[in-house]
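Morning run. Coffee first, then this:
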Amino acid sequence: MFTGIIEAIGRVKSVEKKGASGRIIIEASIDFARGKAALGDSISVDGACLTVTEIKKGVFSADMSAETLRLTTLGTLTRGALVNLEAALTLQKPLGGHIVTGHVDCIGTIRKKDVNGGYVDLEINVPEELIAQIVRKGSIAVDGISLTVTEAGSDSFKTSIIPHTLEKTTLLSKAEGSTVNIETDLLAKYVERLLGARDDKKALSVDFLREQGFFKK
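And here it is:
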């Protein structure tokens, strides 16, 4: 589990395909704030949760399953590509962003990019079936970065990135047409599942929320 607050930018050394799966090797400073990363630790690479399988000086390796290659951009990365890195959340680590699992939901495409002073506004296309999990002022992870949704449309959402985030992540280098890893908010997933499982399809009400334990009786 992660926060979406990027701790380092790594550089891809190689991506090796092994049938349906693969392996990625990344050059990076992995002495994160919580201490030196170890074998078996989870690391978010552009928003995808991977397990460290080998560590050498300034380099770490991680295996990628067929599911990871199918649902993320990691399999399309080439040597020299920059990636956002974050070590797993611990009880000593501030939750500065939001709860991010590292389980990417889809690959989004940057439809529009506007630079306004030191800020960047992005509009990102996503599959229509995910729109119900994206709400204005809600949280979303883009390439592992915790961002706030400024507007949600029928097949896309908008977000605004502050100068500090642009400086500490790879988003500034992303152009229109670039693909990014998208993870919707965990709470939104459960709410959608809960509402979809209802026998009646009436509008959400205070009585319904009280019945589900959201309010004290």
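Residues 186-196 form the longest helix (11 residues). Good start to the day.
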